[in-house]
Amino acid sequence: MKVFGIAGWSGSGKTTLLEKLIPALTARGLKVSVIKHAHHGFDIDKPGKDSYRHREAGASEVMLACGTRWALMHECRDEPEPQLADLLTRLAPCDLVLVEGFKQEPVPKLEVHRPASGKPPLFAERDDIVAVASDEAIAATIPVLPLNDIAAVADFIVDHCQLKV
């Protein structure tokens, strides 16, 4: 599996880019998975549901399954936060894993940067950012891609990861 990150400040448009990028990549015949890092706690379960009650009772893992999907919830409790490498081992084989967040992990990344946000670019500080997608022309020593040109972003990722499409 190839791993490629999408990084940027909160509100920069990472999720929106991924939402458009995934169908562009799958249309090329690639099997794509995503790992997203959440800075704050989250819960995909609902209080009162059986699975929630199982976790609250102390189960370390609860798996939900139906005819269209399954989900595994693992409670960390006294364990440290999982690292990206550990999470990657839990995914089924695919061609490409897109990673949203995990800024500090040393995987090649595309930064989503919007100068109007007033936030400094990350690519100036990180050598694992191999390209930047922006809604404005910016000066950089790495490739700058138009944020709204999804085909160009997809082409860059396919080429950088040396994926066969």
Q: Largest sheet at a glance?
A: 6 strands, parallel
Q: Which strand order do you get reading across the main beta sheet?
A: 2-5-1-6-7-8
Q: CATH architecture, please?
A: 3-Layer(aba) Sandwich
Q: What is the count of helical runs? A: 4
How many extended strands? Answer: 8
Described by the principal axes of the CA atoms, the overall outline is: globular
The H/E string reads EHEHEEHEEEEH
Which assembly state applies to the chains in this document? single chain
CATH homologous superfamily? P-loop containing nucleotide triphosphate hydrolases
Strand content: 15-25%
Domain module tally:
1
What is the SS-derived class?
alpha/beta
CATH topology: Rossmann fold
Low-confidence stretches: none
Overall pLDDT? 93
The amount of helix comes to 10-25%
Distance between the termini: 14 Å
Top CATH class: Alpha Beta
Radius of gyration from the CA trace?
Answer: 18 Å
Comma- or semicolon-separated keywords:
165 residues; Rossmann fold; two-stranded antiparallel sheet; 22% helix
Describe the structure.
- By secondary structure, the protein is α/β, with parallel strands linked by helices.
- The protein has one domain (2-41, 83-160): Rossmann fold (3-Layer(aba) Sandwich).
- Helices cover 22% and strands 24% of the residues.
- It contains 4 helices and 8 strands; from the N terminus they run βαβαββαββββα.
- The strands form 2 sheets. The chain has a 6-stranded parallel beta sheet.
- A hairpin with a 4-residue loop joins strand 3 and strand 4.
- Helix 1 packs across helix 4.
- The protein is globular and about 55 Å long.
- The two termini are 14 Å apart.
- This is Molybdopterin-guanine dinucleotide biosynthesis protein B.
- InterPro entries: MGD_biosynthesis_adapter, MobB_dom, P-loop_NTPase.
- Residues 3-135 form the Molybdopterin-guanine dinucleotide biosynthesis protein B (MobB) domain.
- It holds the Pfam family MobB.
- It comes from Azonexus hydrophilus.
